[in-house]
Amino acid sequence: MNSYIRIALTSVFCLSMAPMANAQTQVHGTRVIYPAEEREVTVSVDNVGKTPRLLQVWVDDGKENTTAETATAPFLLTPPMSRVEPGKGQSFRLMFTGGDVPQDRESVFWFNVLEIPPKPEAKDAPANYLQFAVRTRLKIFYRPKGLKDDPLSALDTLTWRLVHDGTSLALECTNPSPYNVSVANVRFKGTELPKDSIEQPSGMCTAKSSHRIVLPGHESGSGTLIYNAINDYGGFVEREAPYTR
């Protein structure tokens, strides 16, 4: 008897200007911006492989273990499931259904795509095989009406300082703006931060909040850092900023 195992894996989220690729599917863009004045926005997914894929989509509020059946985020996606042939694409309509979300800042949700490969034909299947269903997640920024300035101007409002975080030092980014700022490649001039030093995988300075990057063994008092912010289109914007202690 064939042994059939299906395992869901969370994909690695790569920040780049190209569409995000994972297994046989590509999601257009690296984030979804949802302006409150829009009735809906469209998220497109392409099947760049050689076999059909069944795609299931849903939105969660940041809990990675949420499934399509348990998701409670205030969004509707149609169609919730679709078969996509090789070389073809599928557009999913994303609609905000209303809810108690802040109106003075952006809110963050997550768009999920579960890619399910076809079961091998009986004549081609080995006695035992392992089949993977791969999940891709990317951020949705729900942007209320009337927010002041623009997302790029938020970079000029960020402040950075070294703080104690347990027995280590951490670089704390404070974001007083109403826009979320995703950062990557944060480093001191002439120094590269270890890749495993980011405390939260998102690398995001949340609107009207703070984010910490742990710096084991770093003792500098003040200076200048360099970082890349990711704009609405997934591109990198490099900035320099002073930091204090």
UniProtKB/TrEMBL annotation:
Name under which the protein is recorded: Chaperone protein EcpD
Ranges for domain Pili assembly chaperone C-terminal: 174-237
Family from the record: Belongs to the periplasmic pilus chaperone family.
Domain of life: Bacteria
Keyword terms of this UniProt record: Chaperone, Fimbrium biogenesis, Immunoglobulin domain, Periplasm, Signal
Stored SUPFAM superfamilies: PapD-like, Periplasmic chaperone C-domain
First-listed, main subcellular location of the protein, grouped into a coarse class: periplasm
Biological processes, Gene Ontology terms: cell wall organization
Provenance organism: Pseudoxanthomonas indica
Keyword Iron assigned: no
Lineage: Bacteria, Pseudomonadati, Pseudomonadota, Gammaproteobacteria, Lysobacterales
UniProt key word DNA-binding: no
One Gene Ontology cellular component annotation held by this UniProt entry: outer membrane-bounded periplasmic space
Pfam families cross-referenced by the UniProt entry: PapD_C, PapD_N
